[in-house]
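Sharing in case it's useful to others searching the archive later.

Someone asked me privately for the predicted structure of Amidohydrolase family protein, so I'm posting the question and my answer publicly. Question first, with the sequence:
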Amino acid sequence: MKKKFKYFLKVVIAIIVLVIITITGAYLWPTSTLQPPVSFEKTIINNVNIIDVETGNIAYNQYVLIEKSRITKIDSTKINVSEKVLIIDGTGKFLIPGLWDMHTHSNQHSEWLHHPLYIANGVTSVRDMSGQLNEKDSYWVGSKERMQWNKELESNKRVTPRYVLQSSYQMDGEKAIPEDAPDFFKLQNPLQVDSLLQFYKKENVDFIKVYQQLPKETYKVLAEKAAGYGIHLAGHKPMFLSLEEAINWGQRSFEHGRIFLYECFPEADSLKNPTNWKQYFSKSKLKIVQQFDTVQAKELMRLMNQKDAYWTPTLQTLKFEANAHKDSFTNNENLKYVTNVRKQLWWKYDTDYNKEKNLESLGNIVSEQFFEASKKQVAMANKLGVPIMIGTDVTDSYVFAGFSLHDELYELTRSGLSNLEALQSATIIPAKFSNIEEDYGSVEIGKKADLVLLNKNPLENIKNSQNIYGVLLSGVYYDVEKLTELKEFTETAASSFHMNVKTFISLLNSPLIRVQFAD
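And my answer, the predicted structure tokens:
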């Protein structure tokens, strides 16, 4: 008996050792890297149709000269140069500015899992709505990593979109911050605001990401003092103050499709109670939709227009909640670009939870009503002059880097925006919000050559935005073959054992992730 037990124990130990060696080997396994295309001093796009995203006008059969990373000439006659030049045949094609995704979340694995898909889908600029505290995180990235990516983009050493407007970590009150982090990140009282702003100013952060449970008094002081540091506020509308207050106190952008639903019904003050707002919301979603006050919503939308506050509805998140019970939605072909770790540990839980809720109330699914109500409010806000920016909320459940931006464009048109207005939300409007419209957001002489070459006209059908012939990023041309390579690269990375191990360990080691899940 003892011999059998010893043998069994040896087998168990051997298996454990083998598992440890395998996991360690996978974690340490070197990851392959993508090489960007060769850059040319000069590039000419011949005979292309240029879409003016501000007016909707099309200049047909134009010739575009790009020198290094900027557009230097646009003419209706052929451009001839004597030096070695890359010639792109634009006959029958439509040229638009590079697309922007203004609500994303990047991490330490974005180089393999997100960046290639952004560029393959014509997304040349993104705003990352996450960050770090005072230490480098094993999962989330911060301003230093993103700014380094930008430098390597400009020197053509890295395949990456441009990261605009650097974000802090999400400020969500004491419970959202690890216990051993400096106290000022917890923002328990207004006296900590200056320390927070001083820290993020040194980190070259452009905005503080505000979140739901930030105390009202602290938020007000943060809003009052941020501008003095050259920093603005963007993110969620904190639950414990009114949307009117947040707008008047200067928050520059508001995220997600629920902001007016939370605010414009008779019992909205019940959502501002720090002790039980979550319980109230879970049992009152239907009431929130049914008792929506359109008059109040329009007043708030007019105020947003007056105060130049922008809205990023991220309809993809509500679309997921509304469709989580449908196989036609969840059997998405783009799942091949997502690691099994994320699908099993994150997305499956989210999907099962929303599926169960939806199936309990078939025929009267509240999440479907939320989704449809939010789309109506997008149309309403757009008509009243609220600047709409496109955002997808990568890496939320069933939000796919690059691909979901085209889905969001479509949903915006389904909400009532014209095809042109949808394109504006992904080009010139975010460029203006970022105060860099002199360099980005439209196809003009002097601007950076972040461009997308389409096979068909997106003004006729917004789904034509997906029919991409080529992408120019800082003047470097990604042709059809290269775009295919980018997708295949991410598909291979997402399915690999070593990338899944790296993702799992980085999640496990991240104190920010642990606090996030605990909350």
